[in-house]
Amino acid sequence: MLRTEEFVLNMGPQHPATHGVLRLLLTMDGETVVKAEPIIGYLHRGIEKLAESRTYSQFIPYTDRLDYLASMLMNLGYVQAIEKMMGIEVPERAEYIRVITSEMSRICSHCIAVGTFALDLGAFTGFMYPLRERERLMDMLEMITGSRMTFSYMRIGGVAADLPEEFYPAMEEFLKIFPACVDEYDGLITGNEIFQARTKNIGVLKPETAIKYSMSGPVLRGSGVNYDLRKARPYGIYDRFDFDVPVGEKGDCFDRFRCRMEEMRQSQRIIEQALEQLAELPPGPVIAKVPRVIKPPKGEVYHEIESAKGILGYYVVSDGTTNPYRIHVRRPSFLNLDYIDQLCRGWKLADLVAILGSLDIVLGEVDC
Fold it and tell me: Residue 78: phi, psi to the nearest 5?
């Protein structure tokens, strides 16, 4: 009998398929993964600790740096936590603007997710097409905020500014072409025979396991669990919109990818409804009258939203001063990555790339 020996292989922290500074310490038996130990911390900046030496408003730009691919959602979760703590009522116009910009951010994030997933599997053209639409959305977000990635647009009590006039025709044009664009991705990526062979029945995640490990977002829904905070426990004004929650059937890499594709279509539906309802509102303020110096009462609050990667939560403790006493962030990428070892065991090295790509992590959020 041929004697074989296991060996250790480093994947990362500088590797294109790890989507950032993630290091996987792999124990291999030939091409088969025996163990995959994730090693994180290369992007740790101590954001939660930094919060203690900043005022509540000064911390908003730091939230951008968590999931910088969907930073509008990072802003939203934080400011809503402080508003809940202080009992601030946000003007209705600002609520609609928050929904529109948040869903734009979700589509931007999913465009990166499906594009880089295709790239991971060798489909370079499939990578370029979603980036084309993401670029248009980024242009519109720049119109609104003056920034292309780290927006810091949300404010405690509302948003920094109203939507500019030039935004409406640009968004109207985008909403006309976007359904055909997603259909194009389907034709180019989803229906590709090689892509399906690389993703179907690979890295199967059972629904009970996903729940047990506190996974969320498309990773959870890809396993068939119908749970989206925007539906299950609506925050803001999400209860005013009609949309579906896409779920998978088998919980494999393909299902997780499909969920993100369908979620882009659902985000478009939400934006269309929000724009219609916003048009019926009279002009008004986009930020509530809040004290110039934010000093929440002593106490603690936990608030969570459905971000692009899953459930994002902020736990904030106030001691009655101008700075948070303690902030802890529930980061969906961190929790979704936790099961990577068991998910990869027994699969080939090439499948590991597909499994990791299907989780769609962002290291800014993992390391915090």
Answer: -70, -50
Backbone conformation region of residue 28, classed left if phi is above 0, alpha if psi is from -120 to 50, else beta: beta
DSSP 8-class letter at 287? B
* Residue 155 burial (CB count, 10 A): 20
The stretch 299-307 carries a mean pLDDT of 96
Q: How far apart are CA 127 and CA 118, in angstroms?
A: 6
- Please tell me the pTM assigned to this model: 0.94
Residue 277: name the closest of 242, 233, 228 by CA. Answer: 242
What residues have CB less than 8 Å from 272, skipping those under 6 apart? Answer: 175
In whole angstroms, give the CA distance from residue 333 to residue 215. Answer: 9
Would you say 315 and 46 are in contact if contact means Cβ atoms under 8 Å apart?
A: no
> In sequence order, which ranges of the chain are alpha helices (DSSP H)?
47-50, 60-64, 71-86, 92-120, 124-145, 167-185, 193-199, 207-212, 218-221, 229-232, 253-279, 332-337, 340-344, 349-359, 363-367
Is it the case that residue 7 has pLDDT exceeding 70? yes
Whether 285 contacts 93, CB under 8 Å? yes
Q: Say how many CA atoms lie within 13 Å of 279 toward its Cβ.
A: 9
pLDDT digits over 181-200, tens only? 999 999 999 999 999 999 99
**CA distances for 105 relative to 187, 200, 332, angstroms:** 24, 28, 16
Rounded Cα gap, residues 212 and 217, in angstroms: 14
* Rounded CA separation 10/305 (Å): 35
CA–CA separation, 253 and 213 (whole Å): 17
Measured in degrees and rounded to the nearest 5, phi and psi for residue 315 equal -110, 120
Q: Give per-residue pLDDT as tens, 243-294.
A: 999 999 999 999 999 999 999 999 999 999 999 999 999 999 999 999 989 9
Q: At what angle do helices 92-120 and 124-145 cross, to 10 degrees?
A: 160
DSSP classification of residue 104: H
CA 324 – CA 135 distance, rounded (Å): 36
